[in-house]
Amino acid sequence: MRSIDRPAAQAVRPTAESVAGASNVHLGDAQSSPDTPPVKAAAENFSFYYGQFQALKSITLPVYEKHVTALIGPSGCGKSTLLRACNRMHDLYPGNRYEGAIRLLPDNTNLLDPAVDPIEVRMRIGMVFQKPNPFPKSIYENVAYGLRIRGEKSRSVLDGRVEEALKGAALWAEVAHRLNEPAFALSGGQQQRLCIARCLATDPEVLLFDEPTSALDPIATASIEELIDQLRQKVTILIVTHNMQQAARVSDFTAYMYLGELIEFGRTRQLFVNPVRRETEDYITGRFG
Ligand SMILES: Nc1ncnc2c1ncn2[C@@H]1O[C@H](COP(=O)(O)OP(=O)(O)OP(=O)(O)O)[C@@H](O)[C@H]1O
């Protein structure tokens, strides 16, 4: 397996237009301008099939560095399928098929390349699921897990990284005195922050959130949203949400999907206030979906 953490000598940084160029996607005011952030990842004519069924149709989408991009759209439009493709979750099932590319910058690696090790992809691109899914291990071992897989054995390095990740997930103050307790002893909101800490421990470049607050109460939801707001300073975030208020609150850019296609992509404010496509307007005003 080829490791993907070495930048290629001639990495190409796509712009919003070069990413969207071959498609009909409306970029709205997300087009390149002096204040457009660099592209961190990009789907390029990406299609996905569950057996004979085509769930995603030639998606072309830039994901901007250290910003939050929300994927919205009615149930079954392919949001989770796209998110899962970004860290090769679909590899686990036979019959699934990718076409096109999902590139990670600056090395311009196609994450779907079979020569790229999916385990390494998951270190660079962490994923947080709808329901918190800690391992049946201690709080400490959950966070240390990815580092141990990477071969880290030094207790002092592990201790330091576990503390740093728990602080990054705004959980340290609540668990510092109980690191050896089972992760399942934590509340749902704490377990979700533990899962975020588990991702942070391996220093991911991108974090994927698949409806991360749908199983949480309003207070735990607010703490996860606050955390996302802090995390964007150091990591690129792609989030699937059914909750349009949440998309409006937490994201900088929004992509509206329908029936496996990307209909519109733009800055969140523009997409919600002044969408270019009629389909987007119908969805966000509740006339459809
Ligand atoms: N394992 C699977 N096998 C076959 N088809 C699937 C599978 N998973 C999803 N699909 C289909 O792919 C399409 C996209 O599903 P996906 O879960 O990505 O949509 P979504 O937009 O995330 O929906 P929701 O908002 O309800 O979670 C749907 O038509 C769904 O029925």
TrEMBL record:
Answer whether the UniProt record assigns the keyword Membrane to this protein.
yes
Query: Which InterPro entries does the UniProt entry name for this protein?
Result: AAA+_ATPase, ABC_transporter-like_ATP-bd, ABC_transporter-like_CS, P-loop_NTPase, PstB-like
Molecular function terms in GO for this entry? ATP binding
Which SMART domains does the record match to this protein? Answer: AAA
Q: Which residues form a coiled coil?
A: none
Keywords linked to the UniProt accession: ATP-binding, Cell membrane, Membrane, Nucleotide-binding, Phosphate transport, Transport
Q: Does the keyword Lipid metabolism apply?
A: no
Q: Which PROSITE patterns match?
A: ABC_TRANSPORTER_1, ABC_TRANSPORTER_2
Q: Which residues form the ABC transporter domain?
A: 41-284
PANTHER family to which the protein is assigned, alphabetical = ABC TRANSPORTER I FAMILY MEMBER 17 (PTHR43423:SF1)
Q: What name does UniProt use for this protein?
A: Phosphate ABC transporter ATP-binding protein
- Provenance organism: Aromatoleum bremense
